[in-house]
Write a structure and sequence with these properties.
Layout lengths: L9 E4 L3 H12 L4 E4 L7 H5 L15 H7 L15 H16 L3 E2 L3 E7 L15 E7 L2 E7 L1 E4 L27 E2 L8 H7 L3 E5 L3 H16 L4 E5 L18 H15 L3 E5 L3 E6 L5 E5 L10 E4 L28 H4 L14 H4 L6 E3 L13 H15 L3 H5 L14 H4 L2 H8 L13 E3 L18 H4 L1
Amino acid sequence: MTTTTSDLPVVVIGAGPAGLAAAAHLVERGLAPLVLEAGPAAAAAVREWGHVRLFSTWAELTDPAAEKLLAPTGWTRPDPATYPSGGEWAERYLQPLADVLGDRVRVDAIVTGVSRAGRDRVVDADRANQPFVVHFTTTDGEERVFARAVIDASGTWTTPSPAGADGLPALGEKAAADRVSYRVPDLTDPAVRARHAGRRTAVIGSGASAFTALATLADLAEDEPGTRAVWILRRGLSGSTFGGGEADQLPARGALGLAAKAAVDNGYADAVTGFRTEAVERDGEGRLVLTSEDGRRLDPVDEVVVLTGLRPDLSFLSELRLGLDERLQAPTGLAPLIDPNQHSCGTVYPHGHRELSHPEPGVYLVGMKSYGRAPTFLAMTGYEQVRSVTAAIAGDLESADRVELTLPETGVCGGAGLFDDPAADEQADAGGCCSPTPTPASVLVRIGVGAPVGTGAEKAPEGGCCGS
């Protein structure tokens, strides 16, 4: 077909923080957005973790173009120094933004495929002149829409990583689905609280979500005797295990790690290190037994909370020519800037449309999805991404190339990829950044009060990249 693309909308997949901000920037530039949200309401994914408090303040959670769009409605930004929960973020900012965008946001619209009109991914002929075609389903059936560009801001929430250390579900993990979850427990829900109160829960993971889960379970243990957590780590313990602490330039993020440390220090949780989950079995009472690649079996637990990260769903983009890093599944221009196998201190360099571009012109992955499997994404990153991308779509390359965002450092040197490598721990211990002290693999450690000499988490040294 020969449809002129300039009059077509820009399709934005996902009505989360990045997707709605993209729509606001498009409106500001006089372009027509069409936001397709799979959930029943805007910010559907955010609402699912609405009980979790963010470690970013309101000042870092609203987009300037969105604020301009909201201003005529009488909306005012909440106290910029306070930390909202996910639910508050959705209700006080994201939903009002979706409301002001009106019928440019469609909910219950599940995107099933994106391609070039009349061209599968193999065909070169006149490809760049064809509009994009987006197929999606609604409660009324199948639909399609043509677009001048596509911004995929669908995030990674619906595709959590499994417990298996090889990236695949551990043997028996799916069969144990009735006792396995992939979210931070919401203890305000009586049914969820009952699953953990007075019971033994394994938490698998080493990031902010795992810290939050451990702190949450520790709070429950203070009220419900017999509540215990077992923290499963694939790596050893070091000075960076609990995050950047006071060195983190986002204080609330640093405090999460300190809260997790307190959970272990106070005896509410035990840490099992060097444990790479291979199988999940049931004992005679239906409880779960985790086994590792080296054959160790842990004592039975009642529940398993898997918080090993998230990954992008790329299935509906299979007819597009994407340039993705073979490890992170992030755009090839962005991946070197965020690769946890390479980077220390949590620094992410400024980036915009050029780093987010693909061999298929006019399609962009933004927000959480742009990071693929990499951790430590911040809302302000997504806002700067969509500002640059929408400027590029509008043809304003001067603005699109002017990327000036500086992100706060985590105070942690190294990432998940580094810390999964015992040799990296040894190299760091020999004088690398932060010099974490590795704990011998395959041990259960009680940190803090009553801990044997040599098993305590060491504080990151002053100076260097972690002390800056």
